[in-house]
Amino acid sequence: MTADQGRKTFVLKGIGVSPGIVIGKAYRFDPLDAQISFYKLNNDDLIPHEVERFKKALKESTRQLLEIQENLKKTKVTEPLYILDVHILLLSDKKFINRTIKYIRRLSVNAEWALRMTLDHYKQIFEGLEDVYISGRISDVQYVVQRILRNLSGEKHEIVWEVGHEGVVIVSHDLSPADTAQMKLDKIVGFATDSGGRTSHTAIVARSMELPAVVGLDNVTRFVRTGDEIILDGTSGLVVVNPYPDMLQRYEEKKRHYDDAKDEYLKYAKLPAVTLDHYHVQIGSNIEFIEEIPSAIVHGAEYIGLYRTEFLYIYRDDLPTEEDHFNNYRQVVTEKNLLWATIRTFDLGGDKFPSYQKQAKELNPQMGLRAIRFCLKELEIFKAQLRAIWRVSALGKVKILFPMISCIEEIREAKRLLEETRQELLAQGVPIADRMEIGAMIEVPAAAVIADQLAQEVDYFSIGTNDLIQYSLAIDRSNERVTYLYEPLHPAVLRLIKGIVDEAHAAKIRVAMCGEMAGDPLFCLILLGMQLDELSMNHLAIPRIKRIIQQSTLSESHELLKQAMSYNNAVDVRAYVQDYMSDHFPDEFQKKET
Question: What is the mean pLDDT of residues 123-150?
Answer without folding.
Answer: 71
